[in-house]
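Progress note, sequence design subtask.
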């Protein structure tokens, strides 16, 4: 049996997205996302603490995320896990698991979007651009069920 490498998260950005370009000109947007961890209660307070993930989105997905998302905005991500290893300056070996998002969904209320300076027309245009980038269209389901 084959393996599956798929992840879906919904959370809030803990800082503004950072858009960079590779030497070949490919765009990549790096984001840090906080997500609730169900069942991970602090022993002292009994509160559930967040989990933090590094998310990267490439190409048009990343460009749209950098343009329309900001610190505190809620977003959903569909992608896969990427494992990386490196050696730190002190010689210790380090590793991390990142999420490579192939789909980014902007979430949150209209008032959150207005506070971020994004009007309804810009929001709709960004959603269509995102859907087009992953090869589907927004509202393509006849019965409201996406399968």
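Output:
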């Amino acid at each position: 049996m084959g393996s599956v490498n798929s992840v879906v998260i919904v959370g809030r950005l803990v800082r503004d997205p950072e858009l960079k370009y590779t030497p070949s000109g490919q765009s990549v947007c790096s984001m840090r996302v906080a997500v609730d961890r169900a069942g991970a209660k602090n022993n002292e307070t009994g509160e559930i603490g967040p989990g933090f993930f590094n998310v990267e989105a490439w190409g048009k997905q990343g460009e749209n995320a950098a343009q329309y998302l900001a610190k505190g905005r809620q977003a959903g991500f569909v992608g896969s896990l990427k494992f990386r290893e490196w050696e730190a300056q002190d010689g210790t070996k380090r590793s991390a698991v990142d999420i490579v998002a192939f789909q980014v969904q902007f979430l949150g209320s209209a008032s959150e979007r207005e506070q971020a300076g994004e009007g309804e027309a810009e929001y709709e245009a960004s959603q269509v651009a995102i859907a087009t980038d992953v090869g589907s269209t927004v509202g393509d389901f006849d019965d409201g069920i996406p399968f």
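Residues 10-133 form a domain with the OB fold (Dihydrolipoamide Acetyltransferase, E2P) fold (CATH 2.40.50.140). Work on this subtask will continue into the next period as scheduled.
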